[in-house]
Design a protein that fits this description.
alpha+beta, disordered C terminus, 392 residues, seven-stranded mixed beta sheet, two-stranded antiparallel sheet, globular
């Protein structure tokens, strides 16, 4: 149905504002039909497939942009990804590594292009990690953090911030930007391991090392180098990755509500031409310090206004589940100013990895053998495939 529209947008062939307006209306009409279909009892089993399809246009566009770079680096880095016959579940030995070298950055960049949703570079304070298997030197998964949104209703409803201290306290948390495992470890619930790693001592200590004595670049303030909590949202509605994620009896990922069903992902394929229109009218769409994470939202709103379309078009109706990772035992008291010092939980990555191996890896490996058939050449096949846009 949207084949012509998507191809026009991806090929930058829509120059006429009225034609672009019609294309956006057609796209939103399809989304409306799908959202109305949610009332059908069997829709839940198909929702993720639909959302992946919506995201696919932006993913394929990014892969197309990166193709020349990928062709240059994959011959060297493909061996960093395991084939199934190189993984022995009984010997898997995870290690958490902060991304510091150019080689690490390249490997991280390749891995994030395997995601079925578009992934930005993040904003503000950022940290990136690799999880590798010491037994074979292969990549298990990746983990990335960015500055949190200042306003986040699901989080903000939990705390009564002291007057004038919300920015200071929220900026002692981080947003989980990217988190997941790569094949064949993803077939073995490696994503659970990476999620556990987010709550580890090693992550918060890396944060302290990196940000002790650092001034915020937006207002020049010195913030306490404490990392007290993490927030994240599921990619597609409710999350099987974070759901019931525990370390022994301790709940690691606490569900705290849902997003409000607004965002930009469903209009992602129009974003480049929206920017082009605004820039052509002398309206800057560039990011940087002071613009924050809402740049894309603001660009979309301004472009929709110039097309004579309501900003309510940014309501996609997909309510993503929100999770809180408490890294300190006294989070409520700390965020409300009743406690002045955080009481950190002691969660060594080595112990989290041991728990994951016993709780998820070994049982999964016994239940299925699909991971054994995976070959790392499929990584190249996925990233260097011919890009063809399909009908929704």
């Amino acid at each position: 149905m949207l084949r012509t529209v998507v191809e026009d947008v991806n090929n930058s062939e829509i120059q006429d504002v009225e034609k672009l307006r019609s294309s956006v209306l057609e796209h939103m009409q399809l989304l409306k039909l799908v959202l109305e279909e949610r009332a059908n009892p069997d829709y839940a089993s198909r929702e993720k497939d639909f959302l992946r399809t919506v995201h696919r246009f932006a993913v394929e566009k990014e892969l197309s942009k990166q193709r020349k770079w990928l062709e240059g680096v994959l011959p060297k880095y493909l061996s960093s990804f395991a084939s199934g016959d190189e993984v022995d579940p009984a010997r898997v030995d995870p290690v958490l590594l902060e991304v510091k070298t150019e080689e690490d950055r390249i490997l991280f960049r390749i891995a994030k292009l395997l995601w079925s949703i578009p992934v930005s570079k993040g904003f503000g304070r950022r940290m990136q990690f690799l999880v590798k298997d010491r037994a074979n030197g292969k990549l298990i998964g990746i983990l990335s953090f960015q500055s949190p949104p200042l306003t986040f209703p699901a989080r903000d409803r939990l705390f009564s911030y002291p007057p004038g201290r919300k920015v200071e306290l929220v900026n002692q948390t981080m947003d989980v930007h990217i988190l997941g495992a790569v094949p064949p470890y993803s077939f073995l619930l490696g994503g659970k391991l990476v999620a556990l790693a987010a709550a580890s001592n090693e992550v918060r200590m890396a944060y302290t090392r990196k940000y002790t004595g650092r001034l915020t670049q937006m207002d020049g303030k010195l913030l306490p180098p404490h990392l007290v909590a993490l927030t994240t949202t599921s990619a597609f509605g409710r999350s099987s990755l974070y759901n019931r994620l525990r370390y022994r009896k301790l709940l690691i990922a606490e569900p705290i509500g849902y997003t409000e069903g607004y965002g930009t992902f469903h209009l992602e394929l129009f974003y480049p031409i929206f920017r082009s229109i605004l820039e052509g009218q002398g309206i800057s769409t560039r990011g940087g310090f002071g613009t924050g994470p809402r740049r894309k939202w603001q660009t979309m709103v301004r472009a929709l206004e110039r097309l004579g379309l309501p900003k309510d078009f940014l309501r996609h109706g997909v309510k993503r589940e929100v999770y809180l990772f408490r890294l300190i035992d006294n989070l409520d008291a700390y965020m409300e100013g009743r406690d002045l010092e955080p009481v950190y939980r002691d969660l060594p990555f080595s112990e989290l990895a041991k728990w994951w191996r016993e709780r998820w890896l070994i049982p999964r490996a016994k239940r299925t053998d699909s991971w054994k058939c995976w070959t790392n050449t499929k990584i190249a096949d996925t990233l260097l495939q011919a890009f063809t846009t399909q009908n929704l």
